Amino acid sequence: MAENEQIMQENVATEAPENAGEKKTKRGNFSGKRKDDRRERAPRKEVSEFDKSVVQVRRVQKVVKGGRILRFSALVVVGDRKGRVGIGLGKSREVSSAIEKATIVAKKNLVNIPIIDGTIPHDTIGKFSATSILMLPAPEGTGVIAGGSARAVIELAGIKNIVTKRHGSSNRMNCVKATMNGLLSLKTKEEIARRRGKAVEEI
Q1: What torsion do the CA atoms of 187, 189, 190, 192 make, to the nearest 10 degrees?
Q2: How far apart are the first and last CA of the chain?
Q3: Strands 124-128 and 131-137
Q4: Which residues are CB-contacts of 9 (< 8 A; sequence separation ≥ 6)?
Q5: Is 125 exposed, middle or buried (0-12, 13-18, 19+ CB in 10 A)?
Q6: pTM, whole model, 2 decimals?
Q7: Which DSSP state fits 189?
Q8: How confident is the model at residue 198, as a pLDDT?
Q9: Measuring CA to CA, how many Å separate 59 from each of 53, 146, 169, 177?
Q10: Which residues pair with 86 in a beta bridge?
Q11: How do residues 105-155 score in pLDDT, each as one tens digit?
């Protein structure tokens, strides 16, 4: 019995360092991360071809029987600075949601604006409600001379040189819509000649 116990102890002693070496090798190869663990990557933001500008955010209160309902309305201008621009109005109980809704509406209302050498083809007057905006073409280097509301529409449309003057109401909504109406009234020589049935040289 004593001999058997000595043999068992010798076997355990010889196996212990081998096991310790195996543990060391395992620990040496252990990187601290499991293969199954994968980092959750944040979704990539979609690169849009359009730039947007928030012209106005208003707080609107609706009085009802149970109290007051607070909402926000946002006016947003969207454009690609290459002749396409649109405006949109969104309403929601949160500012971010109102801006998002207005952006979607503005992208649906995109229109093409004729631009010649960075300016408008001719002078025009845009009118909406009690606001009227006079827009004049300008030479290279003049820049955009316009107020905040009209400037957002003009810059996002891609016009680089223009002179404007507002008359009447200074309401931002009216100014933006008056500017859009003025830009929509612009015509190129080719369009006028096509309507009259003449050549461009005859005009």
Answers
A1: 60
A2: 124
A3: antiparallel
A4: none
A5: middle
A6: 0.73
A7: H
A8: 86
A9: 18, 26, 20, 20
A10: 78
A11: 999 999 999 999 999 999 999 999 999 999 999 999 999 999 989 999 999
Here the tokens at position 39 are: 């980092």
The string of DSSP letters for 24-90 reads: HHHHHH--SS-SS----PPPPPP--S-EEEEEEEEEEEEEETTEEEEEEEEEEEEE-SSSEEEEEEE
164 φψ region: left (φ > 0), alpha (ψ -120 to 50), beta (else)? beta
**Which residues make beta-bridge pairs with 137?**
162
- Give the Cα separation of 87 and 139 in Å (integer): 27
At 62, the amino acid letter reads K
**Is the Cβ–Cβ distance between 199 and 193 less than 8 Å?**
yes
pLDDT at 9: 55
Burial of 63 (0-12, 13-18, 19+ CB in 10 A): exposed
Provide DSSP, 82-107.
SSEEEEEEEEESSHHHHHHHHHHHHH
- Nearest C-alpha neighbor of 182 from the set 128, 137, 138: 128
Q: Taking the mean position of all CA atoms in its chain, how far away is CA 63? A: 33
Side chain identity, residue 195: R
For 78, phi then psi, to 5°, come to -125, 135
User: How large is the greatest C-alpha to C-alpha distance in the chain, in angstroms?
Assistant: 126
What are the residues whose beta carbons fall under 8 Å from the beta carbon of 3, sequence distance 6 or more?
A: none
The DSSP letter of residue 126 is E
